Amino acid sequence: MKEIQVRNTLVVSCMRRAGFASFDGDGLQPAQAPDNATALPAGAWGYLGPEVAAVQGFHPPRRTAPGQPAPPPGASSEAFDAARVDCDRQAAERLGSPPSTGTELIGRLFDDSLRATGRDSRVVAATRAWSDCMAAAGFQAPDPAALPERFRAGQEITPAELATARADAECTTGSNLAGIWFAVLAGYQRQQIDHNAQALNAQREAVRAQDAKLSQLLAGDGS
To answer: Closest Cα to residue 162, out of 13, 62, 47, 80?
Structure first.
């Protein structure tokens, strides 16, 4: 993400100006997020991917938390920590943020589209077919969204969880729940785009302006 890259550049530049010439940004980069195909394989749309279901169940991939940067050799931890706080503040001030109004609108529209999709008769029928398929396989569940909550509370992936996930994936394919769910969702979201075109275009321009600002900061190497 460009904002993280620019923030790291600004902090590194600031820390070096503060006298920590060997600071290279260790610990600034967040853990690499898993891709969407495996991060959230299950939801109201069913389970995507039998291969993932067979090994992951309803647990997300484990992530490695980023470590905390250590003070350079010879530097006092107090001076280093004070410089880091000040450089983080300066980076935040220079980065700023785009107007929040458009972001809030997008979040509200997305939530509305999810609710409309869940109530749609086509999705209701496909969910019922999915539930019937699961029952025939020996697993009782009114809808796919209930399954992740049932298993994610446990720390370890159990054989029962994997069996349920495999059945979920098979019934998702058999009922075409995911195909119907995403097609219906896309339809509602296209309607929202048409009805809120002016506000969404304004947000797009705000994001473009913020991206241009980030590019300028990055091109200047945070100086």
So the answer is: 47
Q: Which of 36, 43, 14 is nearest to 127 (CA)?
A: 43
**Following CA atoms 161, 38, 52, 117 in sequence, which dihedral angle do they give, to the nearest 10 degrees?**
70
H helix or E strand, kind and range, residue 46? strand 46-47
Determine the Cα–Cα distance for residues 101 and 106; give it in Å rounded to an integer.
9
How far, in Å, CA of 91 to CA of 96, rounded?
9
Q: Is the pTM of this model over 0.90?
A: no
Give me the phi and psi of 42, to 5 degrees please: -130, 145
**Cα separations (Å) of 23 from 75, 135, 173?**
11, 58, 51
pLDDT at residue 149 tops 50: yes
- Residue in this structure with the two tokens 């905390």, named with its chain if needed: 68
Question: 6 or 46, which is more confident?
Answer: 46
What does DSSP assign to residue 36?
H
Q: What are the residues facing 46 on neighbouring strands?
A: 43
| pLDDT at residue 11 tops 90 | no
Q: Do the beta carbons of residue 45 and residue 144 sit within 8 Å?
A: yes
64 or 86, higher pLDDT: 86
Give the residue carrying structure tokens 């060997």: 22
